Amino acid sequence: MITTVIFDFWGVLATKRFRIFDLVKETLSVDESTHPIFMEYYAKVELGIIDEGEFWQQLCDRLKVSPPEQPQAWSSAYKEITNFDGETLAIASGLRASSYRVAILSNMDPGIGTYLRENNYLKDFEGLFLSYETRLAKPDERAYSNILKVLEVMPQETIFIDDRLENVTAARKLGMQAAVFRGSERLATDLRLFLNE
Description:
With 197 residues, this protein is an alpha/beta fold. The chain folds into 2 domains: 4-15 and 83-195, HAD superfamily/HAD-like (Rossmann fold, 3-Layer(aba) Sandwich); 20-79. It is 50% helix and 15% strand.
């Protein structure tokens, strides 16, 4: 029996109006070709290995550019970046009201985590499993095992929703029910099938 529904954040509960990379690009006056280098350091931020200040220093050293004196804090930038999906959030709230447990498993940096918590946007979610706090990122099997262990649920009792097939595939390998997110309308249909409603 399904007891728990686990959602990804980006691409499911919210989309981005623009990328953090766009902010970095503008701040440092660099072009799109630097994206792979940006991702190398940004991945460390998402895993909690380095903080935002260390990110700027290490990235600037690598690109051989001067670090900005006072870059915009990512937590404030996310106010402009984040576009919440009201319909999907309503589905999550409806599940919680129907006594299902709802949680988030997401790869994210501390900036968005801080923004979401300070504004109480995720109050309906029982557990927040954010990569920069757990130091585990999808599709690493340990990220899924950790959430199952902490929530004390069996894989077959959970549904995992993510917009990336590789993350859904990893969840299925552990025995979780899982679906690729293709919009709130399709999600409602998928959940009805999973929950036999």
